[in-house]
Design a protein that fits this description.
Elements lengths: L3 E2 H8 L2 E3 L3 E2 L1 E3 L9 E4 L11 H6 L4 E4 L12 E3 L3 H15 L3 E6 L4 H13 L4 E3 L9 H7 L7 E5 L8 H8 L3 E4 L13 H9 L10 E5 L5 H10 L3 E6 L5 E8 L4 E7 L2 E7 L4 H16 L4 H8 L10 E7 L2 E8 L5 H13 L4 E7 L8 H6 L12 E5 L3 H7 L5 E5 L2 H11 L4 E6 L7 H10 L3 E3 L2
Parallel strand pairs: 4-5, 5-6, 6-7, 8-10, 8-11, 9-10, 11-12, 12-13, 13-14, 18-22, 19-20, 19-22, 20-21
Antiparallel strand pairs: 1-3, 2-7, 14-15, 15-16, 17-18, 17-23
Helix pairs in contact: 3-5, 4-9, 4-10, 7-8, 9-10, 14-15
Amino acid sequence: MTLWTASEAADATGGEARGDWSVTGVSIDTRTIAPGDLFVALKAARDGHDFVAQALEKGAAAALVSHIPEGVAPDAPLLLVDDVQTALEALGRASRARSQARVVAVTGSVGKTSTKEMLASMLGTQGRTHASAASYNNHWGVPLTLARMPRDTQFAVIEIGMNHPGEIAPLARQARPHVIMVTTVAAAHLEAFDSIAGIAREKASIAEGLEPRGAAILNADIDEAEILRAAADAAGARIVSFGRRAEEYRLLKVDVESDTTHAVAEVNGRQVTFDLQSGGAHFAMNALGALAVCAAMGADEARSIEALGHWTPYRGRGQRERITLAGGAIELIDDSYNANPASLKSSLSVLAAAQATRRVAILGDMKELGLSAEAMHAEFANHEEMTHIDRVHCIGPLMRALHAALARDRRGEWTETSAEMAARLEDLIEPGDIVLVKGSLSMDLARVVDALRKMGKGAEPDA
């Protein structure tokens, strides 16, 4: 199906179309580009203009550029604009303006991507659904997601993130959601904010993009709940709360086994149960909020609950795998994509509840926590979850504070880098272990996960 014609893209961006082309997709990466895509030459770590010729050779139908790159013919299929980032945003806004889809935007300090994936699964059983890829939630990820939205989309799920103040509201105004959801507010990116209340105000600014008569699905259990409610109320939103203290979607009970979660909730005065094929009370909380979103989007509750039962975590965000070793097997909890204190606590709870010969955590630094970072790492030595974990291995200068604070009987190895830890794994991991791997993205814990997989004779994600 045609996504953009040359004339449509030119009208949307105010650019000059060279040639009469049409595209079926939008890409920013020549490594994954598909024939028929529009290649967007963004300037990030490297200038995308350097890859335009390669993109066209790989079958790109056209390229969005601010000048004709070296090695590209003047009559090549191009869309010439003054600024590529600005043009991508304009393309995203035009896509949103022409769409009849019901749109939800999700933000939060923890659980954005998992909740987005839940919603994509739940809504995907009830209509043509478009969702952000991976964690495409920033200044280029949101407009790219919008620009990629097929014309016949019925439901769209947009993830919105931030690192600094003032980032969320402009992205929300591009997405123009009918429903917004804030999963939670917690200590993340504290380097850029004066307090958690400041983080809450930034998350609450997602309401600035809400469509008239829209709905706000908000976590009732956090200390900053009133900040979220005030912003939603100022936007004229219909407010729906979820959580253990919520009025509309109240979580009554959660039973977690090693790889399943059973939840009981009260929804507007009636009892509802749902199951997840992954262990974790935090997943149950996000799923409850997702059910509230689906109702606000006009989706059927029973079908939403059924789809939840088939959802499994995204790779790097709690996905579980069994890895066969000589003499037995280990279970891996791959939560290596990112970390902050709230998400680490949730992950340690999952590990603590697991059934295994030994429970082992391999933890990397949590970044962007400001001046209290070392103390926040060390505090985990005294958390209740730690009493159920047999061995903790630590990676990075901040995690050295936790390593020093741990009781001797559970203190494992410390290394400066993930590469060093990966090289030691064969001496640290035994058949019968369940192993949690978690840390901030820049710590490259994926290297540890890959090394664990290579120890095995094969691994299959748990269904």
